[in-house]
């Protein structure tokens, strides 16, 4: 039995759940990995010069043992997230430390502590096997998976599963991720694949869409409301392309920051009207490595006021971190919210706290999404209210190049990866609904 037989079953129109259940599992499969004995390979290099194409491997790996509450999924497509960039450049820490720590939780979690890390935190595919105790899913089900892995044994996480003390991001802090032909997930990560999307389109939103949903919309995040002005950094990137859609769909006004005319055009295509090209306008929030320039914060704030007709922003959707955080705190309206989920340009932020406390602003930390938020975010994709922002699709062999493009900010929206899917465009089950949304689905393609 090989993965080819699995693919044949997925592509045959009449394979039943029983047929999938009867398929023997392959012994091994192809997976994107980083290697534990290579974590020092970029020592001494600047972050920018660490090249994912050198650290990312395509290996043949054994199929992991299936445990209770888990599912093995044949992965048709996945996507590149920035967490895979972090893993591949071994920053801020090599992810093998996470696997070692997880390996100590139980006999079963020991499986994750390996000398190779199979990465990837998104997938669209077909359930192959479910472990004991799984009733909601069966072999043959077409699914996507969100990336929240929790043990749920502590009451700390029972109101909000992100607060579980054993909360991990699958494919980043656990092994057996989605950039592979087969993946191992907890069955609670599974959600129905949106029927109007191809495999690679369905695999694109998961991580960033759920994160933007919690960060901006959920009561655990900024609780955006109608009429809010929302400043969105990187509005045509992974997170920002969903934040922009949530702002527009929720009756708010996005102020989209981008760095090129092409990216401005994408933001416009999504329906945004207020756009700042940070490159063209030349903002320099730092005079040198240690000193910020408040005059530049003010120039940025004036530009926002020009665009909004004199209003300041109710919410800043933050993720660039060190480079922008001082400006983000400054331009937020009195009583407004800066909601942050990342620090791409550096995690030691500096801001003038007088502007925070005197103007009663709030900083909220946000990370991925709880089970329910991930489900709600996927439901919005399934209903055609929010659309994938897939720009380009790579083969599994070219994942290193895909991660390089994301690391160097050469991409738009989301970058997809075909795993078992032999070509793009397969897996659409609702052509009628697709036709209704085709322009929106293709907004980011070939820009
Ligand atoms: C969905 C996608 C998301 C993304 O893309 S996010 C972007 C990518 N992610 C990242 O860049 C984050 C990567 N992770 C990290 O950098 C690290 O992961 C953290 C800095 C988040 C945490 O560091 P650590 O060393 O793993 O954890 P500690 O909590 O500092 O634990 C170390 C020891 O310190 C103890 N400790 C924690 N808090 C306290 C406290 N308040 N007082 C005293 N001790 C404390 C712990 O218990 C533990 O101890 P013991 O080593 O013995 O187990
Ligand atoms: N905590 C969580 O749950 C999550 C955290 N993340 C983290 O969020 C960050 C962004 O992820 P994602 O959106 O997928 O990445 P992308 O690279 O797809 O998009 C980020 C965008 O931010 C803009 N940007 C990058 N650097 C700067 C800078 N120095 N100043 C201003 N803008 C900048 C760029 O847009 P432009 O050049 O057009 O301005 C870029 O396109 C990553 O660090 C990632 O690890 C992501 C998802 C979940």
From TrEMBL:
UniProt-listed Enzyme Commission number(s): 1.3.1.86
UniProt key word Oxidoreductase: yes
Keywords on record: Metal-binding, NADP, Oxidoreductase, Zinc
Matching InterPro entries: ADH-like_C, ADH-like_N, Crot_CoA_red, ER, GroES-like_sf, NAD(P)-bd_dom_sf, Zinc-ADH_QOR/CCCR
GO molecular function annotations of the record: crotonyl-CoA reductase activity; metal ion binding; NADP binding
Domain Enoyl reductase (ER), residue spans: 51-417
Pfam families (alphabetical): ADH_N, ADH_zinc_N
Superkingdom of origin: Bacteria
Reaction(s) catalysed by this chain's protein: butanoyl-CoA + NADP(+) = (2E)-butenoyl-CoA + NADPH + H(+)
Protein's UniProt keywords contain Transcription regulation: no
Family from the record: Belongs to the zinc-containing alcohol dehydrogenase family. Crotonyl-CoA carboxylase/reductase subfamily.
Quaternary structure (record): Homodimer.
Name this protein carries in UniProt: Crotonyl-CoA reductase
Organism: Streptomyces roseochromogenus subsp. oscitans DS 12.976
